[in-house]
Amino acid sequence: MSIHPAWLPPCAFLAGRRVLVDSDHPLADTVREEVIRAGGILTPHADLTFTAGPAGDAFTLTGDRVAADGPRGMIYGLFELARGGAAGRHEPSFERRMIDHWDNVDVHPVMGQVERGYSGGSIFWKDGVLRGDLGRVRDYARLLAAAGINAVTINNVNVHAAEARLLTDRRDEVVTLAREFRHFGIVTHLSINFAAPVILGDLPTADPLDPHVRQWWATIANSLCEDISDFGGFLVKADSEGQPGPFTYGRSHAEGANMLAAALAPHGGVVHWRAFVYNHRQDWRDRTTDRARAAYDHFAPLDGLFADNVIVQVKHGPIDFQTREPLSPVLTAMPSTRLAVELQVTQEYTGQQKHVCYLAPMWKEVLDSVHGDLTAVSNVGDDRYWTGHPLAQANLYAAGRLAWNPDPTAVLDEWMTLTFPEAPSELRTVLHRIMDRSWLTYEKYTAPLGIGFMVRPGHHYGPDVDGYEYTPWGTYHFADRDGVGVDRTSATGTAFAAQYPHSRYESTATCPDELLLFFHHVPYTHVLHSGSTVIQHIYDTHFDGVTEVESMLAAWQEASSLVDPDLHARVASRLDEQLRSATEWRDQMNTYFYRKSGIPDTHGRRIH
């Protein structure tokens, strides 16, 4: 079965060109391979020259030269030329740009091969062992490098028994994968279990202040970095959703992270320590508990206490990758701590790669406000189209490219040009009609005004308005006969809004419409800044969302002669499902809120 090539066919612009790669770094050999693959000619008398300084990912393009700050910059400059990039200086706004895989070695009985994976199985492991043919991993590394990614974590943040052994007797698999990624300048990281000294060793404790535990991790780090000279470091999910952590021993997250950081420091490695820590055994009757508060409450007091090589990794919103959330307050509350913002490319709450939902416009709003590292949860699998839905490839591409080019529309144009290089301009028009506003369309027919989690528990696909409302995982809409929304104000609610200095979220007068119900419980007759009431906005957006999906499907049908028939059929089948699901969302949401409010639609449309 052939694999759809995604956004980078061979660098055809090199065909017949004379090229000099003036460097003896191993990554220069990668550039030379690309030149030969594309039909270029390696020669000292060149009309295109690649040079590299000692360090850095930035590069400068002139008419006949790629002058890179460091070896990786030569690769990024090559792919920028493939995009037809403009002359001048090109540099990323985030130093480390990492893709996190939630892949499992074995098929987990609940989470499957890839946790929150919607594109088939792992591209790394099959039937519990590393795949024998890693050609596709090499292709994947090339795709990531073309998007400007320079780091990857290869396994799930929820580290199960088999994955824990990647530190020890299965380390050769990590070594092998690191070799493939290194070829394109991508550094390999590993998710680890905080309790590994107990699980893998013979220690009775994983207390981060215990000298035997500290020595165990130092020994592991020494041998690991001896086997993988450019090993990037550890990713840790601790004290969250059942994963072990320093709280077990009465220690802080800073103490837990710093113990691992000390082990890696001699080798230049870093610890990405996730801030996704909250009580998932809440009592829904307790109106003072608020999942949105948790990360700030846990981590803001620790600012300045983390080691220099600890990076606190923060989800971009305070809840869990919902369709619309405010920026996590943690991302602006820890000026003395290295931070990474975490995006979710895999569309757990945004259609699970069955729905078109181009997320770059949402991410831009986040990335414009933060600095540090950029991390993104992968959406690839062993599906022939890499991401299940062929158009979902654009999200993976954007996760890297937004660090270099912050214009979501320009990034989408790049992806289209590279993915469909032979297609007529009509295809670009169709794809823009489908993708440009697809995130806003998804928001309309699912959960507008900042309401989240109205999804079916467990797998999170499809509508279930009260699915999580009375569970220990949290309460998210508080709808009753009088109104809807979560009161997060300081005056009468959970005081989450106060985590934002000079917060515009405290008052309904200044809170933006798109986040109103995230911060306020209001009557159904509350008038939005748009002039519509809350209840009418709910009705209107759900009807409009379905209409917009119908238009997407019609536009794609017009493109039947413009793309490969198999690809057209795959996208058409996904759009059919998107329309079915959008209709289901519309009918359930409108009916639910009509029955709660008793207020009819002013346009008299059918509500069941």
TrEMBL record:
Residues 89-369 form the Glycosyl hydrolase family 67 catalytic domain. Residues 387-605 form the Glycosyl hydrolase family 67 C-terminal domain. Pfam families: Glyco_hydro_67C, Glyco_hydro_67M. InterPro entries: A-glucoronidase_C_sf, GH, Glyco_hydro_67_C, Glyco_hydro_67_cat. This is Xylan alpha-(1->2)-glucuronosidase. It comes from Actinoplanes couchii. The gene is aguA.
